[in-house]
Amino acid sequence: MNSTRVTSHDVARRAGVSRATVSLVLNRSESVVLSKETRERVMQAAAELGYKPNSAGRMLVSGLTETIGLVVSDPSILLVDQYIPQVLYGIEKANREMGFHVLVEGLEAHGKGGAYDNLVESRRIDGLIVVNPRAGDEALVSLIEKNFPVVLVGSVRHPSEVSVTFSTRGAIKAAVDHVVGLGHKRIGAITFSSRGFVATDARLRALERSLQDHGLSLDEDAVQEGDFSAESGHAAATALLRRRPDITALFAGNDTIAIGVLNAAQEIGRRVPDDLSIVGFDDLPFARWLTPPLTTIKTEGVQQGTIAAQMLFARLNHRPLENNRVRLEPELVVRRSTAPAPS
Amino acid sequence: MNSTRVTSHDVARRAGVSRATVSLVLNRSESVVLSKETRERVMQAAAELGYKPNSAGRMLVSGLTETIGLVVSDPSILLVDQYIPQVLYGIEKANREMGFHVLVEGLEAHGKGGAYDNLVESRRIDGLIVVNPRAGDEALVSLIEKNFPVVLVGSVRHPSEVSVTFSTRGAIKAAVDHVVGLGHKRIGAITFSSRGFVATDARLRALERSLQDHGLSLDEDAVQEGDFSAESGHAAATALLRRRPDITALFAGNDTIAIGVLNAAQEIGRRVPDDLSIVGFDDLPFARWLTPPLTTIKTEGVQQGTIAAQMLFARLNHRPLENNRVRLEPELVVRRSTAPAPS
DNA sequence: TTCTATTCCTAACACGTGTTAGCAATGGAT
DNA sequence: ATCCATTGCTAACACGTGTTAGGAATAGAA
Question: What is the pTM of this model?
């Protein structure tokens, strides 16, 4: 298959120097003085042979892999929701600039020990980004406490975590102000996951508090749990609107859920936005092309991914972070799925 | 950070045997006879110390990485289209079962040499899956000709490629039969990319031929090029419907394009499906929740990813493939975005 | 007892790299 | 002529693993 590989030994022989010299030249070592002439001879020999250092040899001696792991808590979310790909793109972009590689792994990979052990203990990666971490993930917490370079996109509410999140409170307040300003009083919510997930709990709490600011409440029976997919959003909305037909505005846990909600509403004859207003979360690319275009909260997944990668690189280079927890301020994007409450 | 790592040497010392014995036990080598007792002692010592072999050491001596590369030709497509994540999920799932890892890389990564050189020459991966390969990608073709284990999801039309694709012809014929059967005669198309992309060209050609079977044609000015995003679909459809208001049915290059087309149609007052029928491609998860639910062609991205991974594993294990080119038969899914032609 | 066969294990090498201590050679100063 | 400083390079080790040829110990046969 492959004609025998080119090693630094071959380059050395061709350039008429020792293997050590080759390594010194190619790694631009400043500590050792080499003649300009030798440098060039080695460079040329390397170029002619098309020499690429074997990464395993390098990893072994340096202990560094130039690879980061991206652990996706539940890879099946990849199937239904477009949020993680946004984050992945942001990470990949940053890694490309740094010359790093990205290893993508689902959490349950490689036995019950989880992906962490396998990736970290076998020294396959220098650092780790975890998207949508679960607060109860003990293996992850243990990694954080060992001070292994982990950056979360999300949070496990651990004092020493390094994470990039967004402030739920501000954006949800803006959305509630908007919806209540349109005259809505009976408001419901469809979550994108069961409760217990940090993000879902945070969004519900922010919603409750923002409603209270207006003297309104989020009734217990006005909340229905979804399960990541548009399908679950459809089912949840159908159940909720049957139970509480008086509700005039719905907050969807995210845009994917919102698609299902929108469809369910139309299916049972509620016109959106005339009879029912809907607010999404994330502002995924399709949100503005739905019928009607979705009012939603823009969470900037790409930016989150890029920032997470940059924070990780800083840790790997032992550069101090000015801030262990970056918190983005999402923005409300008003489109046409929200309108004045029916009179 | 990390308390000194556990090596096979530590395990050997604890079990009172040599390092070689540890290696033999842990790799279940049958060729050398070891006493049951020694085996157990080593296993226990390894377990107690939490020994995980260093992957770099292993890679170096075995030449195998237990890692495959996933190269995404244009990672920005990740942002706008949900198709690649489906494939990624299928690949990740298969890899999980095999205990392999997945390295995801954009094509332009790591300098103009492309991602291939960097991944392959530096021996970071055992094999490669390329999604949406470009036919003109010389670095890729060269890799195929060197017989490096590559599996394409898509095709570069190279005689010795190993690929998983789907038959465009059959499904498009079914879709055309369906649409023409509804009485449509003036039919247009919005591509998901410029021409020159293998998939786009194939879909257009299949569309033309299928229309000819019914004595109809695909007019040159009834085709408009999109550029992966829903936004481009919207723009293209707006232009096309302005130029050819007589068109009553539109084939979108994929579902993401279809979202934009749907929105554009409604924006200029064409009711879907009453005034205009729309057919998508891929059957992404959101397709059935659009308003109206999208008639589309189901391409099974997850299955493609899984099959590609399995074919790659077969190659890596030097198992002969019964078929170098797996060709799936996609299925037409009729929903409500297609209806009888307006009279 | 001596020789051979068998069982169990280990010494030693190989994989390809980065890095440090130190060797030759040269030139300048005493 | 001798000594020292500098320049330019390399020998040798380390990283952690898998594997093969062969050594020690035991058992069985002559």
Answer: 0.93
